[in-house]
Write a structure and sequence with these properties.
Radius of gyration: 14 Å
Helix content: 40-55%
Largest sheet: 3 strands, antiparallel
Order of helices and strands: EHHEEH
Number of strands: 3
Structural class: alpha+beta
CATH architecture: Orthogonal Bundle
Shape: globular
Strand order of the largest sheet: 1-3-2
């Protein structure tokens, strides 16, 4: 049997990322952040969000740099 993990709401993810919950919902709708829909509601697995953040952090370190 699959283990049930804690699901986060857009508000909880917003608090973690320090952004508004509506921004989290827009990111989910555009598939920019790992998410799932339960009826009309967006939910997020804590582990998937942690992995996503780690990947984004690595991209930021190795991504293109801006030149002034």
């Amino acid at each position: 049997m699959a283990e049930i993990t804690k699901l986060l709401t857009p508000g909880e993810v917003g608090e973690l990322l320090q952004i508004h919950s509506k921004t989290v919902q827009r990111m989910a709708a555009r598939r920019e952040i790992p998410s799932l829909r339960v009826g009309r509601h967006w939910r997020f697995e804590r582990g998937a969000i942690s992995l996503w953040l780690a990947e984004k952090s690595k991209e930021g370190l190795t991504g293109p740099t801006l030149r002034g």
